[in-house]
C-alpha cells in the first residue's frame, strides 16, 4: 500500500556539502554553501559550479538538480568534511562514499583521491580524511608535483555535452582556477619540479586546441607548435622535455609526435597516413628523453618507443590500452592484465579485479605506495603484489523497512542487508538460494507490527522484534523475480513478478490466487506482460500495473481484483511507470516525466504535473499528496506536489549522489522533513533541515 514513511536519526558522522563560493582554508570559519543550480520543478534558479575568482574562474550556472547548500563549519586542518544541519550526511560508509575516480601518491605517507560531486580525500599517516567539496563537478585526472601543488579536472554533464572546471590545491586551499577561453579541459600534467601544462579545447573539430602553461598565478599561452599542428595529448618530463601528439586540419587522429626542448618544438616522428596509421593513445614519457605512444596501423596496434631520438616498436598483442599514471609511468593493459614499461619492454605487474575495466581505472605509484581508483570498490591500495580494497566492499541497498514516524532500522539490497546499531550500519549476507547465490532484494512491504516482507529474486520475512530473517525463503523462478510486494495487513499480502505471475500470502502460506490473471483482453495476449507495480487496499481491492516488454501494440495495462474476478482497465500505447492510490481511491501513474491521475469510476486520465529527471519511485498519501523521486545526470531528488503552486517542488535539497536508489521522508523537525537515502556500495545518507 503506497504511503509516506516517517523517519528520524539524530547522530552525526559525515556529510556531503555543497560547493563553497570561496576556497576552504586551514582554521577558517566555514561560510554558506552554494545552492543547487538550475530550475528544478519550480525551484529557484541558483548559481552553482565554477567560482568567480580573482584568477578569472568561470561563473558557471549549473543545470538540473545539483547538490544543495547549508553551512559548513570546517574543523581542524580546515575544509574537513563535517556534518551539520542543511547538508546530506554520510552514515555509511564513513567518512564519505562518493565513487573516487583518480588518485595521486605524494609520498610513502601521503596521497590524494578525487571523485564524484567534488569528493576529495586526503591520506596522511595512514588515515583517509574526507574534505568538504568546493564544487559539485565530478573530479578526475588528478595530477601533482608535490603536497603543495595538485590539480584536477572537474566535469559536469549538460545534456549532450559537458562543462569543465580546473581545481588547484596549494597546500592550504582548494580553489577553482580559470582554464582560459576554451571550455573543455582535456589534460593537466607537468614535471616533478612543478612545471604545469594544460591542454584545452572548444569541443569543435574545426577549432584548434590550446596549450597553456602555468606562470605561478595564471595559465598563459605556451610556446606555440608549428602552424596547423593541433595538440591532442601532452606529456611533461621537465622544463626542457615536453612531448605532444598532434593532428592537422585534414586528419582527425594525431599522426605526428613533437618534442619541446625548452626553446622550440621539433618533429620527432610521423606515421605514414597512407597505411591508415595514427596514434591512438595519450603520449607518456616514463624516462628521460623517452616517449611511448600506441600506434594503430593496418587493423592492429603496437607501441612506438622513442628513446634518445631512436624510434623502435614494441608488439601490442590483443586489444591493449596504453595507460599513463600521474607520475608519468607507462602501462599496457590487456584485459585484466597490466604490464609496466621498461627500456627492454613491458613487464607484467598486476591484475585488475574481476569486473574492473582497463578503460576506466586510474592508478598511481610512488615510493613503493600505490592506489587504484574507479575500480571495485572505487579505491584500493597496493599490497606489494596486488591492489586490495581499502574498505570492505559493501552491497548496493535498494529498499528499507520503517514504520511511519520512525527511523529506518534495516535496509536490504544485492545479496546483503544492513541493520543499524547505534550510529553504525552492520552488514550481513541475505539467505542463499538453491542456485548457490545470495538473495537479491529490490522492494519491501512493512507491516503495522514493524515486520516486513522483502522481495527480489525471492521472498523473505523480516522479524522486527528479533531483527532476524524468518525461514523459509520463497524463491522466484530461475529467470523471474518479484517486482513488487504490497498488502493491507498480515493476512493479505500480494507479490507480483516480472513474468506475469501473482502470488498471495493469507497469513499462513504463499499460494497462487484462487483466480489467475486473465491471459488475454480481446485479441491482446497478456501472458508476456512484465508486472511492475501493485497497490493493495483490501482483500477485495487490488490493482496491478503490467507492461509489455516487447513493445507490441500496447505498452501498459491495469488489472483490478474485486474479490471474485479480475478485470482489465485502461490500455495505454506508451509505457507507464509506477502505480499508487490515495486515501480516496484516486489512481496515480507516470507517463514519461508526467504524473497522471484518474478518479474512482472515471474512464479518463488527468495530468497532475511534470517533474525533472527520470522517475525512480512514486509514493502517494492523501489526495494530491504525491512524492516522486527522480534521477538526473548529477544525482537524485525528492519532489512533492504543491497544490498552492500547482507544480512539483523540490523538497529540501537535491542529493548529489548518482548511486542513490531512493529518497524517503523522515520525521518532521521544525516543520520540515528529514530525508534518508540508500544506494550503491552500502550508501546510507541522511539529511536534517536547518
Description:
There is one protein chain. The protein is 0% helix and 50% strand. The protein contains no helices and 60 strands. The chain is an all-beta fold and 690 residues long. The radius of gyration is 28 Å and the shape is elongated. A hairpin with a 2-residue loop joins strand 46 and strand 47.
Short description:
It is elongated, with a radius of gyration of 28 Å.
Compute the average pLDDT: 85
By helix and strand content, what is the structural category? mainly beta
Radius of gyration: 28 Å
How many helices? The count is 0
Main beta sheet:
4 strands, antiparallel
The rounded distance between the terminal residues' Cα atoms is 31 Å
The strand line-up of the biggest sheet is 3-60-59-58
* Strand portion: over 45%
What share of the residues lie within helices? under 10%
Quick one: how many beta strands? 60
What characteristic shape results from the CA principal axes?
Answer: elongated
Amino acid at each position: 500500500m503506497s504511503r509516506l514513511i516517517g523517519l528520524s536519526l539524530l547522530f552525526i558522522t559525515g556529510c556531503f556539502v555543497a560547493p563553497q563560493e570561496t576556497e576552504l582554508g586551514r582554521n577558517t570559519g566555514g561560510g554558506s554553501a552554494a545552492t543547487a543550480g538550475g530550475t528544478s520543478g519550480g525551484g529557484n534558479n541558483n548559481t552553482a559550479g565554477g567560482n568567480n575568482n580573482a584568477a578569472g574562474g568561470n561563473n558557471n550556472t549549473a543545470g538540473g538538480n545539483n547538490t544543495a547548500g547549508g553551512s559548513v563549519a570546517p574543523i581542524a586542518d580546515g575544509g574537513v568534511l563535517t556534518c551539520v544541519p542543511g547538508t546530506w550526511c554520510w552514515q555509511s560508509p564513513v567518512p564519505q562514499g562518493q565513487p573516487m575516480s583518480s588518485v595521486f601518491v605524494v609520498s610513502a605517507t601521503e596521497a590524494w583521491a578525487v571523485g564524484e560531486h567534488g569528493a576529495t580525500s586526503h591520506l596522511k599517516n595512514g588515515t583517509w580524511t574526507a574534505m568538504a567539496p568546493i564544487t559539485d563537478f565530478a573530479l578526475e585526472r588528478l595530477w601533482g608535483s608535490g603536497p603543495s601543488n595538485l590539480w584536477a579536472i572537474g566535469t559536469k554533464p549538460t545534456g549532450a555535452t559537458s562543462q569543465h572546471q580546473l581545481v588547484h590545491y596549494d597546500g592550504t586551499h582548494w580553489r577553482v582556477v580559470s582554464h582560459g577561453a576554451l571550455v573543455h579541459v582535456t589534460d593537466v600534467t607537468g614535471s616533478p619540479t612543478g612545471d604545469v601544462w594544460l591542454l584545452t579545447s572548444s569541443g569543435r573539430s574545426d577549432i584548434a586546441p590550446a596549450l597553456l602553461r602555468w606562470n605561478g598565478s595564471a595559465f598563459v599561452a605556451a610556446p606555440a607548435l608549428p602552424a596547423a599542428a593541433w595538440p591532442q595529448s601532452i606529456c611533461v618530463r621537465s622544463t626542457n622535455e615536453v612531448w605532444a601528439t598532434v593532428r592537422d586540419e585534414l586528419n582527425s587522429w594525431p599522426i605526428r609526435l613533437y618534442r619541446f626542448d625548452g626553446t622550440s618544438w621539433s618533429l620527432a616522428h610521423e606515421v605514414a597516413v597512407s597505411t591508415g596509421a595514427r596514434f591512438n593513445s595519450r603520449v607518456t614519457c616514463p624516462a628521460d628523453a623517452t616517449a611511448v605512444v600506441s600506434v594503430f596501423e593496418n587493423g592492429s596496434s603496437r607501441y612506438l618507443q622513442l628513446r634518445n631520438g631512436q624510434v623502435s616498436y614494441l608488439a601490442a598483442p590483443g586489444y591493449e590500452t596504453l595507460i599513463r599514471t600521474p607520475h608519468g609511468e607507462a602501462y599496457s593493459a590487456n584485459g585484466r592484465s597490466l604490464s609496466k614499461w621498461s627500456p627492454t619492454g613491458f613487464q607484467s605487474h598486476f591484475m585488475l579485479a574481476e569486473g574492473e575495466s582497463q578503460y576506466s581505472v586510474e592508478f598511481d605509484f610512488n615510493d613503493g605506495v600505490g592506489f587504484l581508483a574507479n575500480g571495485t570498490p572505487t579505491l584500493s591500495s597496493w599490497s606489494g603484489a596486488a591492489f586490495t580494497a581499502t574498505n570492505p566492499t559493501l552491497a548496493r541497498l535498494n529498499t528499507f523497512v520503517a514504520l511511519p514516524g520512525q527511523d529506518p532500522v534495516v535496509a536490504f539490497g544485492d545479496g546483503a542487508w544492513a541493520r543499524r546499531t547505534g550510529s553504525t550500519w552492520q552488514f550481513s549476507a541475505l539467505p542463499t538460494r538453491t542456485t548457490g547465490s545470495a538473495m537479491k532484494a529490490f522492494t519491501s512491504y512493512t507491516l503495522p507490527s514493524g515486520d516486513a516482507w522483502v522481495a527480489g529474486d525471492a521472498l523473505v520475512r523480516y522479524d522486527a522484534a528479533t531483527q532476524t530473517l524468518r525461514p523459509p525463503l520463497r524463491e522466484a523462478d530461475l529467470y523471474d523475480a518479484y517486482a513488487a510486494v504490497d498488502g493491507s495487513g498480515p493476512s493479505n499480502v500480494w507479490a507480483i513478478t516480472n513474468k506475469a505471475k501473482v502470488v498471495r500470502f493469507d497469513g499462513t502460506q504463499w499460494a497462487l490466487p484462487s483466480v489467475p490473471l486473465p491471459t488475454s483482453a480481446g485479441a491482446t495476449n497478456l501472458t508476456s506482460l512484465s508486472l511492475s507495480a501493485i497497490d493493495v487496499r483490501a482483500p477485495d481491492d487490488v490493482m496491478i500495473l503490467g507492461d509489455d516488454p516487447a513493445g507490441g501494440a500496447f505498452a501498459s495495462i491495469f488489472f483490478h481484483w474485486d474479490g471474485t474476478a479480475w478485470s482489465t482497465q485502461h490500455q495505454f500505447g506508451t509505457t507507464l511507470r509506477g502505480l499508487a492510490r490515495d486515501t480516496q481511491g484516486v489512481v496515480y501513474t507516470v507517463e514519461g516525466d508526467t504524473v497522471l491521475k484518474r478518479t474512482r469510476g472515471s474512464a479518463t486520465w488527468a495530468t497532475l504535473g511534470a517533474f525533472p529527471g527520470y522517475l525512480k519511485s512514486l509514493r502517494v498519501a492523501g489526495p494530491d499528496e504525491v512524492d516522486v523521486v527522480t534521477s538526473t545526470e548529477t544525482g537524485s531528488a525528492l519532489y512533492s506536489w504543491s497544490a498552492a503552486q500547482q507544480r512539483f517542488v523540490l523538497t529540501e535539497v537535491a542529493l548529489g549522489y548518482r548511486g542513490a536508489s531512493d529518497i524517503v521522508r523522515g520525521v518532521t523537525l521544525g516543520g520540515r522533513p528529514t530525508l534518508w537515502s540508500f544506494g550503491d556500495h552500502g550508501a546510507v545518507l541522511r539529511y536534517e533541515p536547518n
